[in-house]
Design goal:
Blueprint (H helix, E strand, L loop, with lengths): L1 E6 L6 H20 L6 E7 L3 E4 L4 E4 L2 E2 L8 E4 L6 H7 L4 H9 L3 E4 L4 H6 L7 E2 L6 H7 L4 E2 L5 E3 L3 E4 L4 H13 L2 H10 L24 H12 L7 H7 L4 H12 L3 H19 L4 H7 L5 H12 L3 H8 L10
Parallel strand pairs: 1-2, 1-6, 2-5, 6-7, 7-11, 8-9
Antiparallel strand pairs: 3-4, 10-11
Helix pairs in contact: 1-6, 1-7, 6-7, 11-13
Length: about 325
């Protein structure tokens, strides 16, 4: 029997607290229905008897206090809610317990922006971690020693796991279920909960907004210039000259401020414009490519797939729905 401890943090997202509990409980029922023994003992753990989630909308009853849990096999950290620094501070009493369980052999899995609490434990310093795409910059600022894996649904670094944004938590849970039980049980659970078991990337859902929460005014002006003129052709040297900065210094400062190279930033801005065009218009790939400043079809397709995880045609087919106008009588 594998003991799974689902933490109920202070200031947490209810939609991330209940899925792990429900999935592994349901998996036990599936196993019993096929004549097998249940594999999982699942419980909510926390620092007090009742903990409120979201903005106090929900109350979760904790089954065991963490100070009474001396050993467990899996610690699951649900997504936090609201301001991340405040949420981490509210849950600071959980940190030594998570560290202790890990040191005793427990595996640890963070759901979505539960990565912020995982990051605070120091267990992923110098290692890789996934989180919601909208929180990459904030996570990197708070935990510079951790490598954020952009676009990934699941990151597995041995006995520590993390998931990307929102519904990606289900993909990680199914991944763990397959590991702890078997593929058949995981597939059955994916069908029961209507989850795509093998979704690998959150890149297609990412909305790129240039990182401007920094204190380098020249780089901020360079970002604005790129965003306003992304259709034009210009070189890094020309950009550096425009802002009277040496190329070497310009590239170093740009990377430090935005967490992207100049070329990466330009690509992200262009691909964001291409995504919007595919979502909102009937333009073909060549038209969109020219609109966003590309003349090489192969280069455009390569960069688009690298950033979104989909080809241009796949992206358009996934997100563009032509509006059918009702006839006026």
């Amino acid at each position: 029997m594998k003991r799974i401890s689902v933490i109920v943090p202070e200031s947490a997202v209810i939609e991330a607290i209940t899925p792990p509990y429900r999935l592994f409980k349901t998996a036990n029922e599936f196993l019993k229905a096929t004549g097998k023994q249940p594999l999982f003992e699942v419980e909510y753990v926390g620092v007090k008897d009742e903990i409120y989630a979201n903005d106090g909308e929900y109350c979760v009853k904790v089954q065991r206090h963490v100070d009474t849990v001396d050993k467990t096999d899996v610690v699951i950290i649900p997504a936090l809610y609201g301001d991340m620094r405040r949420a981490v501070e509210l849950n600071r009493p959980l940190i030594p317990w998570i560290q202790k369980m890990y040191s005793q052999g427990a595996e640890v899995a963070s759901m979505c922006i539960g990565a912020f609490l995982l990051g605070s434990t120091g267990l992923v310093d110098g290692k890789k971690c996934s989180t919601h795409w909208a929180y990459y910059a904030e996570f990197s600022e708070m935990y510079p020693e951790v490598e954020v894996v952009e676009g990934e649904i699941i990151t597995d670094i041995g006995s520590i796991y993390s998931s990307g944004g929102a519904n990606s938590i289900w993909n990680l849970l199914l991944y763990l279920l397959e590991k702890y039980a078997d593929r058949d049980t995981a597939i059955l659970a994916s069908k029961y909960f209507a989850i795509d078991i093998d979704r690998e990337s959150q890149s297609a859902f990412t909305i790129f907004t240039g990182q401007k929460d920094h204190h380098d005014p020249e780089i901020k002006r360079a970002q604005e210039y790129i965003e306003e003129n992304f259709k034009e052709r210009f070189t890094v040297d020309e950009l550096a000259d425009r802002f009277a900065i040496s190329r070497r210094s310009f590239e170093r400062r740009f990377k430090k401020a935005t967490n992207n190279t100049v070329v990466e930033y330009l690509q992200r801005v262009r691909m964001e414009a291409a995504k919007r065009s595919f979502e909102m218009s009937r333009k073909n790939v060549a038209e969109v490519m020219f609109d966003v400043g590309y003349t090489d079809t192969k280069a455009f397709r390569t960069v688009f797939k690298k950033i979104t995880g989909l080809t241009p045609v796949e992206y358009r087919n996934k997100y563009y729905k032509e509006t059918v106008m009702e006839p006026v009588e």
